[in-house]
Inverse folding.
């Protein structure tokens, strides 16, 4: 069964299925097919006014036996933890806090 079909089946009857499927698919796809070992990961922290920076340590993994929602994962080596947001320009901060969870920074702005 294809990824979108599985997502549709999993999300069936919860309301805005089409939008949710498009959102999930557009985030899982780059994680599984584009991000590679050595790529940098930047993520804003929710409980601190800071940014984490890491490097993908190996390729994407899918393990159906893992607990929901942790089927899809990839190990990250954190190289800079809790970097204050003030160390980044407003343009980068806007990209870091963008709606989509996974995005290419080259496409930002």
């Amino acid at each position: 069964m294809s990824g979108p079909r599985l997502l549709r089946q999993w999300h069936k009857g919860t309301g805005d299925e089409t939008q949710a499927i498009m959102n999930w698919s557009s985030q899982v796809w780059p994680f599984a097919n584009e991000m590679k070992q050595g790529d940098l990961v930047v993520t804003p922290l929710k409980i601190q006014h800071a940014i984490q920076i890491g490097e993908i340590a190996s390729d994407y993994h899918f393990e159906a036996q893992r607990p929901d929602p942790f089927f899809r994962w990839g190990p990250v080596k954190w190289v800079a933890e809790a970097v204050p947001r003030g160390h980044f320009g407003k343009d980068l901060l806007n990209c870091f806090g963008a709606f989509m969870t996974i995005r290419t920074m080259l496409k930002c702005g």
